[in-house]
Each structure stands twice: as C-alpha cells, then as structure tokens.
Hints:
about 210 residues; alpha/beta; single chain; seven-stranded mixed sheet; about 20% strand
Amino acid sequence: MVRVLERVVLASGNAGKLRELQALLAPTGVELVAQRALGVPDADEPFGTFVENALAKARHASAATGLPAIADDSGVCVPSLGGAPGVRSARYAADAGGPKDDAANNARLVRELAAHADRSAYYYCALVLVRDPADPQPVIADGLWHGEIVAEPRGDGGFGYDPHFLLPGLGLTVAQMDAADKNRTSHRGLAMRALLAKLADARLLRAVPAT
C-alpha cells in the first residue's frame, strides 16, 4: 500500500536550502524538517557526482530518523574552469586551504576566472527522495539554470554564489531577485517541480501544487 508523504526530513543543514524547499513543498501539505533539528549530523559527500552525493545524504538522514528523506546536492559549474567548482562548490575555498564559507568560495571563483573571457556558468541541482534507507526506487529529479559570473557581488539575498551569479536576461544577480521569483525559475525550483510531478504520479502527495 502506498503511504502518502506527511513528514520528510531534509538531509542538509543549509538554512537557505531549507527555506527554499519548504516554500516549494508547502502547497502539498508535506512538513519538511531539517535533519539538524532532529539531531542528525551531516553525512559525508565522497562522490564525484551530484546524484550519488544526494542519495548518500538522503539514505543517511532516513536511517537516522526513520522518516522519508529528501536531499539536494547542487553547485555552480563553470565551463572555463572545466566544470569547477561543481560538486565541490560548498568546499571550493577549503580545497585550496581556505575557510569553508560563502565569501571565501566566491573569492576563489572570481580569482580563478580572472584570466578567462568566457564567464558563462550554470547552477545544477540533483534532488533525491527516499521513502526509507533501503528504498530500491529513489525518486530523482534535476534542474539547470544558466547565467554568468560577475566579479563584483550584487544584492544581499540568497546564499552561496548568488551575489556573483548574473542572469543576463534580467540584468540581475540571483541575490537581487525576489525569493518567490527565484523559486519559480531556479535550478532547485525546476528540480523540485520535476520531483513533485513524479511523486504525484506515484500518489505520494495529498495535494498537488499548481504548476
């Protein structure tokens, strides 16, 4: 018998991701709770792909709580840098001996791109939901958001690389966008809508949000 999702743990301690995913899930009636609120530590992310890391995080959170779990693994990918930071986006500065924080990550990205004319980039998000730790059919969706990297930060919203991620068609960085507009168009918003469509098809949602 299919069990409708009611309470799901988010396998992340990132407050920005929690806010965005809570807003996207709210119309479905699913309660999303951060793993940190349940005393669950962050999982290791040893893999070289977004999907494998997201799956590892989701299984870890589900095993620790007994709840279905959703995990996001995402980052900014820059073709001029061979796809970096990519899966190492949250640890980009730390990989070079610096601190693990947004300011240091952005500073390294801008520094590495200084010699390149092509500043195009894209955000990528892989979302995974598992109903239990051994779920043999994890629900997987992804999303892509194209833009370019600017040297000077603009705006004070968002998190991560948002102040440096420019959307040329809007003339705004993601950090200058309204939160609701970001959720409608972002890589995470696209991935979540794709995930929700799959969950609706599997009859795992009490209510299906309008697209």
